[in-house]
């Protein structure tokens, strides 16, 4: 099975998602998208397969979002995608693709709906929030 995560190791949510994938027994293909950004066609395809508006994949915090004027509602999807290609930090993360679907996994437990195998044990987020108990039952 192929699971891909577009990952930023500096992001706690992204680290939690990667850990949840691994806790299900899968070793995903990890793409550190700041080091290896997706090509334009790949980003367009990811967004289309997620079935979400382009704006929902834009990250504002800690990015040049406002400096680039990306809050302007008149900007087209093409302009927004071009900005994400030019500045990959604008791509919100983590994006996870599995045979069951593709999604921006914020909050991190959203990845659980994309994983074909259940968690193999209890899981607690880095911040201390318990997601799965010892029996594999979701607590959130």
TrEMBL record:
Classification via SUPFAM superfamilies: Thioredoxin-like (SSF52833)
Keywords: Arsenical resistance, Oxidoreductase
EC number in record: 1.20.4.1
Pfam families, A to Z: ArsC
PANTHER family hit by this protein: ARSENATE REDUCTASE, ARSENATE REDUCTASE-RELATED
InterPro entries assigned to the protein according to its UniProt record, in alphabetical order: Arsenate_reductase (IPR006659), Arsenate_reductase-like (IPR006660), Thioredoxin-like_sf (IPR036249)
Family: Belongs to the ArsC family.
Protein name: Arsenate reductase
Substrates-to-products reaction catalysed: [glutaredoxin]-dithiol + arsenate + glutathione + H(+) = glutathionyl-S-S-[glutaredoxin] + arsenite + H2O
